[in-house]
Amino acid sequence: MNKSRSLLLLSLVCFAVVRNDVLADDPQSPRDRAEAALPTQKMTWSPLSINGKSVRPDDESNDSDETIDAVSFTPDEYSEAFDDSAYVESPYEGEVIYEGNHAYEEDFAGGGGIPCDCQSGCDRCYTPAAIGSYWLRAEYMLWSIDGIDLPPLVTTSTAGTLPEDTGILGQAGTTVLFGNDTELDSMRSGLRITLGWNGDRFGNGFEMSGMGIFDDDESFSSSAALLARPVFDASLGSESAMLVAHPDFLTGNVNVRASNQLASFDVNRRQVLSSRGCQRLDLLVGYRYGNLEEMLRIEQSSLYTAAEGPIIAGTTVGLFDDFQTENQFHGAQLGLHFQQRSATTTLDTYAKVGFGVNRAETTISGQTTNTVPGGGDSTFEGGLLAQSTNIGSYDESQFMALPEIGFNLTTRVRRDMQLTIGYSLMYWSDAVRLEDAIDRTVSQFPPEAPAGARRPDYELNTTSFLAHGLSIGAAFNY
Fold first, then answer.
1. Higher confidence at residue 12 or residue 223?
2. Where does the signal peptide begin and end (predicted)?
3. Residue 213 and residue 262 in contact, taking contact as beta carbons nearer than 8 Å
4. Taking the CB of residue 296, how many other CB atoms lie within 10 A of it?
5. Each residue's pLDDT tens digit, 91-128
6. CATH number of 134-477
7. How large is the average pLDDT for residues 137-147?
8. Which of 424, 360, 395, 451 is nearest to 137 (CA)?
9. DSSP count for the chain of H helices, then E strands
10. What are the residue ranges of CATH 2.40.128 in the chain?
11. What per-residue confidence (pLDDT) applies to 133?
């Protein structure tokens, strides 16, 4: 009996041991079934280089006992997480850089074991550009451009002044209403659009930029009881004036409008000269166009309320003087663009110089119309400061330089968006200006024929022109 119990106990122990061994090896155990339910991924890699030496995937000589310090590779099969990216060889020994559609410093700093820290040092910071990516920057500009130095153009006098003394400079009681000052030199708005494209991961590519300072004008109008336009009488050798209004026999008004505008466009090839850490220097080579326009128009109208010499009452006299200048520059451009990055902030400094031909043109025109009651109208060429002695179109082409310098401070607010603020300056070395087209010396008054000194006259001359100001905007990466 005792022997039978012992045999039964021994059989149970053996059965338990065998069962545990079977469960441990059973692929359908709960643990193995849970592990088998997990998704599997397969990744294969084809090496591009080992220790800086290019290799071929089918080359049997790749097997070596040599210690491997650095490997660059490309994925043959990869997961969706890496669909829009590729690994590239870093210019820094022993590093592997991940390049995606957008590469920024923060993508590398402290992430994925990639060594890059632009906040503490840039020696190991490398940010390749996405091939084929482009960027757009739009900026609001607040600029000041060189104003127009105008001579005294409209004057008045105190009540009781005799007609022959009204509005003459140097006479007691004469006041300048318009002119004798610099006009259109205040700050004004403008817009600049810049588009860039990266042709490779180093940032070589093209960029184009267009800017314009909006047309601004200065207007003046007066119908004062005593009104005149001052000139220097060449025949008398002294100051004089053309009477527009006087209470004794004449009513009239004067309207003056002056305006100017500036525009520029350039397209450049951008070539990286140096890229170390968070500093980069680019060479710019391209084409530059510039346009500068100015104009002045003076209109006057008078009605004789009483006879004055041979002029009968009711006669009207209307005339205008018109001056326009235009500069068009075409030339080749060279420049440098320097970038200093620090975390999410970038300082851009650039200098560009266009060398080419500027076509300068001045156009002067004028006209006078007299209307006599019962006698009809008569119109002839010439006003007061624009007469047959200087009316016409004058142009000249000459070589000049058109430099532009500036800097921008940019901070990133999103992966694909940056805010920027900056200052820039543009200088024309030789441009025709409106102020040089106005000659206030006259040798005759309309409708008199030219005589004597034949003034006013004009000779095309060029001078410098400066425009500068602030800009604020946003840049977008795509």
1. 223
2. 1-24
3. yes
4. 26
5. 433 333 333 333 333 333 333 333 344 444 444 444 45
6. 2.40.128
7. 96
8. 424
9. 3, 23
10. 134-477
11. 83
